[in-house]
Specification:
By secondary structure, the chain is of the alpha/beta class. The protein is built from 7 helices and 11 strands. It is 32% helix and 22% strand. The radius of gyration is 19 Å and the shape is globular.
């Protein structure tokens, strides 16, 4: 495999495009190659999950996501490509739930997806999420139950934006323990107040 030739090609492409104010997005799936990602502004991943055989939710578990789809560990932002399965076993909502939990945005594939993402973008932008500290669920920034529900937190200026994702595969009632001292919570997408009892 012409490994170094591909790296030289990507470097030349990056220098040409970046030098003119453009952006290089690597459209890849099923692997990560840091030697070439070093010459990209971002990468897209996930097409192989929805297009392949098997249950995408099982293949796109939290361990796989952290290894391949997060971007943080490669120094290059990732966008998750989500193609819903025709049999309904995997939806744009499934992809959004796991990607947002990992500080990754799903890539809209058309006007329907844009309508789904617009409220999410508004919430993130209003919070100024790119300036916030991000605390992933594996560091337990807030307590959540039951087991298959996870929460990551953006924290800025004493405020918290909590991303809560249900990864159980079924409708579930969950409890989130708010950060210490919090007495109120709002559904940021709907703009409605949530009931808070004993800080939960």
């Amino acid at each position: 495999y012409p490994f170094f030739a591909v790296r030289r090609m990507m470097r030349a492409l990056y220098e040409f495009v970046d030098g003119r104010g453009g952006v290089v997005n690597a459209h890849q799936s099923g692997y990560v190659c840091p030697a070439t990602l070093g010459f990209c502004h971002a990468y897209w991943d996930g097409e192989h999950i929805a297009m392949g055989a098997g249950d995408p939710k099982a293949q796109l578990d939290t361990k796989a996501f952290r290894a391949e789809f997060m971007g943080h560990n490669h120094g290059v932002p990732c966008e998750l490509i989500v193609y819903p399965k025709k049999d309904g076993s995997f939806t744009y909502g499934n992809g959004t739930a796991i990607s947002l939990l990992h500080d990754v945005l799903p890539r809209p594939n058309g006007c329907d997806d844009l309508a789904k993402m617009a409220p999410v973008w508004k919430v993130l932008d209003a919070f100024r999420w790119t300036e916030a500290d991000w605390m992933p669920y594996w560091e337990n920034p807030v307590a959540v139950s039951p087991e298959g529900v996870k929460a990551s937190v953006y924290r800025k200026d004493g405020r918290n934006l909590i991303v809560v994702s249900n990864l159980t595969g079924k409708e579930t009632e969950a409890t989130v323990t708010l950060p210490s001292g919090a007495t109120a919570a709002t559904d940021a997408r709907k703009g409605t107040s949530l009931a808070v009892l004993d800080g939960k």
